[in-house]
Every structure is written in C-alpha cells, then in structure tokens.
C-alpha cells in the first residue's frame, strides 16, 4: 500500500518514512505544500499523513483543495497545535483523524492501520434505499438530495441496515457488527445512536420495529 | 492651598458667586424700596402742601402768610416731626411746630414740581423735605414752599424691610447653593460611573468603558479604551509569541524522538531512554505552559464573547467520532440550541474536548452531553457508561498536575487543566457518578455570568 507523508521537518519526515516502511507500507515523502498537493492530486495513495505547518501552502489548504477536487483518500493530520478548535477545523476540512506532536510512532502506525481498515473493501460504490443514498467509497450519505455528515459508527450502522436488503436487523446482530461483541446494555446504546442519527436524517429513514430491531424505510 | 476636591471647588465657587449676586440684588432692592417709600411719603405730604398753598398769600409788608394754617395738629405741637415753612424775599413764615428753628434753605428748588430730599433737620431729627417755588398772586413774587416730616418712621420701615430681605436672601442663597450642589453631584456622576467601570476593568482586563457617556466625558472614555486596547494588544502579542514558541518547540521535540528511535535501533538503549525522559519532561512543561496561558487568556476574555454549547459539543463530537477512541461511541447530545456561555468558543471547545475525549476513552458504548439551566446555574454535564471513579480519588484528580486513572496507569487525563479553565471563566466543576454508571463531570456557571 502506498502512503504519502507530508512533513517539512527532515528528522520527523525520515522517521515517519522509516517507521511506516518497517510496518510494510510504501511511502512517498513531500516536504512542501505545493509538492504535496500535486502528488495527492495526480497519484493514487491509500492514505495520507499531513503535517499542518508547511511552508508555502499550509496543510489545511492542501486538504481542502484535495477534497474539493474529489480526492477522498483518508487523511491523518499531524499538528503542533493541540487546540480543539484546530482539530475541529481539520475535521471540517475533510481530515479523518488527527495526532498532536510530539507523538509516539507506535500510535501513529496503529491509527493509520485503523484508518485504512475503515476505508477498505466496498463493492458497488452507491447504495440507494428509499430516500437514503450511501456512497461507500466516500463513506457519506444523502437523504433525498441533502448531504448528511455521518460519524464512522453511524455510517457502519446505516451500511449494515442497507445490507439487510429490506429485512429487519436485530439489535443483537447490529451490536455484534458494530462492537464485535454484544450484551444486554447495547440496546440502549443503539437506541441512542438511532436518536442521534434521526436528528440528522429526519424521520422516515430509519424505522424502529419494537421488540425486533431496525429497518431502512423503502418509501421514496 | 488649592482645594483637591473638584466637588468642593465647584461648590465653593458656586456659593461665592451666588452670594455676590444676591448681595448686589439686595443693595439694589434696598435702594428701590427706599425710593418707593420716599415717593409715597412725598405724595402724602404734597396733599398737605396743596392745603397750605391754597391759604398762602402776602401780607401788607410783603411777608408770606398762611391763613388759615393747615389743620393737622402736629403742625402746632413743637418738634412734632411735621413742619412747613414758606420763605420769600421779604420774610418767612413757618409752622409753630418748628418753634424757634427753621428749615435749611437750598437754592434751586423747581417751580413746576415738588422736589424731595432728605436733610438733617432741627431737634436732631432727620427730615424728608419736599419743596418748590410758587407765585401766590400775579405780583411776580416767588415763595419757596417747604414741607418736612421726620424720616425716622421711614428709616424704621426701611430697616425692617432690610432685615426681612436679608432673611429672604439668606434663604434664597441656601436654596440656590443646594441646587448648585445638586447640579455638581449630577454633573460629576459620570465621573463616578467611570470610576466604577475602571474598577471593573481592573478586575476584568477584557472589559471596556461604556460609550454612552455625556459628550464631555466620551472622549476621555474613548481614550482610556484605546489605551486599554493597545495594552491588551501588547499582552496578547507577547502571549501569542510565547505560545508560538511553545508550539514551535513541538516539531523539534518530535525530531528528537526520531533521533531517540534511531539511537535505540543502533543499540544505544540507555541514551535513548535518557532522550525519551527529556522529551517527555519538555513536552509536559510545554503543555502546562500552554494551558496556563490559555487560562490567563480566558480570564481576560472579552465581555462580548459567547459560546454556543450545542455547536461546540457537536463539533467536538464530530472530531472524536473519527478517532480510534471514539469511533465506537455514541454521543448523546441533549443541549438546548440557544444555550450560550459568556466566554470564547475556543475555550469551551477546549473544556468539552478534554472532557468528551476522556469520556470516550473510558466509555463502553455511550457518552452523554447535556445542558440545562437550573436554580440560577447553567449546567453542562458530560457522563459516560465506563467504570467511573471512586469519590475519594476525585479530589486528587483536580489538583494541578494530578492525573486521574480510570482504567489503569498510563491512561490519565489532565482534568486539572480543564478545572483551571472552568475556574478562569467563573464556573465550577464537580465529579460524581452519572446516570450511565460511569464518571459524570458536572460544569456549572452562574446564570448572571451566562446571560
């Protein structure tokens, strides 16, 4: 898998390249914002590690340009500033995860693997059920024509329901899918998830079948 | 010695000016009153003089003669205080009341009207005299007719009037001075307001003087505000430089960590261990300094800044949902959409970010963020369904540098930093066990501060 590392500090950049190389990735290094934008725009990377403090073109601008050009590879941002407003800005610009400097290399590699795992493996890119459209390549959703911002958990929930093809997804199965294990408390957590999701999608997308589970409405 | 108090100075000058004006007015009134009573007395004497004129003629020797004499008995009684006298070239006649005295003769009496004047008279009396030249017959001989009255009654009346006037003027002086005092107090009130506002500025450097002062005070308030802005700008720039320096050191620290990894790979474990310890210590010192600077900034936050709680919670949740710790967590956010807190949105993001990230780290499935206004407080509660902490350990978590381990060593979080920020924004922080069974962090700000 090819990764792009964008980092202007030579020591940190070299270290990232070596550590990710050791972890089995093919790594390209870009040291300026311009270079990063060009490479990201013209080559296919599985994921990008992007430092925000770059010379010439700052990291957030690079990220925004990629996203507006439809480049949707997962991006992990590295930032020297640890303020939450900056994290929020990064996520708003289209980042998928962030890590504050100084960081432990082990954690970075683990986060990278988690990002790639999340982005991996989708057959057909678009799934339409009723008013809901899921874009599996971007992990995004539309209700009618309105774009909905989903958390990864919310996305996986909707995707799981979509794969039931009109059938009811039982709470136990949903919990197994989302958490890997299931226990008695999960029903409440899933109910809370659905409540939060309905605030974004409005009524009539996810329906509750009391005592059984949840189903996606097929009504257009 | 010049008066130090502006109020006393204004009051003293107003009192003196009013006193002077009233004094001049008093003298004028006294003079007017004197002329008024003189004229009235002269008019009443003119009536008596007309009676006398009717009886005035010359005797054979050319001496003036009044026959019959005026009827008033006081003309008969010596030194009675009422006298008449007629004088011609060839002789003189006067009332018996003059006895062996006579009225002083001043030349130049008019012949077409009565002249009144005050003169010292006989019997040690002051006299009001009216006089004019008349020609009793067609012979062309002129007679000076004088009629006089003791002016002591007039003087008494005048004195009495003077006393009453002085009393009235004194009262007027008091009333006017009181009015001037009121004016001074009213006039200086804006200065008092400035003092209160300056005091508020001292306690909260982000506050500014209001701009609805009277036109005379406004330029002063604006000048003070500009000065405060300039100073705040300097402090802010200095602080920003310090923060930039701290942030700027983080990349070199990451580079040092890279060197440490290389050293370890080359077999120099001891050197790498030393480097790692130094990096950790430097990193912790930087974080502490940044947190301190953030609390200081929050303490000076602009009075006008406000943070929407729902927006901040949603934004922070959107970040955490994408991280490994948060990707399996459902955030239940139950906050009224118009709920606001009176400080910068970035500070609220910092507070909620640290608390929600920690909650997500220890939660099993759910983290709840709720907001409510109750009993004079705006409350924001962050709770999770994790293992929670024992009450006895809650206290130690809040000590600066203290770390709270829910799950075990190495997973602490700097609740003290959040506590500093909450304190700097006049809020309180309490730890407890929430409805989901895990840790509940309850933040509360007084409604007055929030509205």
Radius of gyration of chain B: 51 Å
Total domain modules of chain B? 3
N- to C-terminal distance of chain B: 50 Å
Helix content of chain B: 40-55%
- By CATH, the architecture of the largest domain in chain A is named 3-Layer(aba) Sandwich
Widest β-sheet, arrangement of strands of chain B: 4-3-7-6-5
User: What is the arithmetic mean of pLDDT of chain B?
Assistant: 85
Globally, the shape of chain B reads: rod-shaped
Termini of chain A, distance in Å?
40 Å
Q: What's the total number of strands of chain A?
A: 12
Q: Overall mean pLDDT score of chain A?
A: 86
Corresponding CATH superfamily of the largest domain in chain A: Response regulator
Domain Response regulatory (chain A): 2-116
Keywords (chain A): DNA-binding, Phosphoprotein, Transcription, Transcription regulation, Two-component regulatory system
DNA-binding region (chain A): 124-218
GO biological process, one term (chain A): regulation of DNA-templated transcription
Topology diagram in text:
The complex is a heterodimer of chains A (about 220) and B (about 450).
Chain A: E1 2-6, H1 10-22, E2 26-30, H2 33-42, E3 47-51, H3 59-68, E4 75-79, H4 84-93, E5 97-100, H5 105-119, E6 126-129, E7 132-135, E8 140-143, E9 146-148, H6 152-162, E10 169-170, H7 171-179, H8 186-201, E11 206-209, E12 213-216
Parallel strand pairs in A: 1-2, 1-3, 3-4, 4-5
Antiparallel strand pairs in A: 6-7, 7-8, 8-9, 10-12, 11-12
Helix pairs in contact in A: 2-3
Chain B: H1 6-54, E1 56-58, E2 64-66, E3 82-88, E4 91-94, E5 115-120, E6 126-134, E7 143-150, H2 152-203, H3 218-248, H4 250-265, H5 269-299, E8 307-308, H6 309-320, E9 330-334, E10 340-341, H7 345-362, E11 366-374, E12 377-384, H8 391-397, H9 415-424, E13 428-433, E14 439-446, H10 447-450
Parallel strand pairs in B: 9-11
Antiparallel strand pairs in B: 1-2, 3-4, 3-7, 5-6, 6-7, 8-10, 11-12, 12-14, 13-14
Helix pairs in contact in B: 1-2, 3-5, 4-5, 5-9, 6-7, 7-9
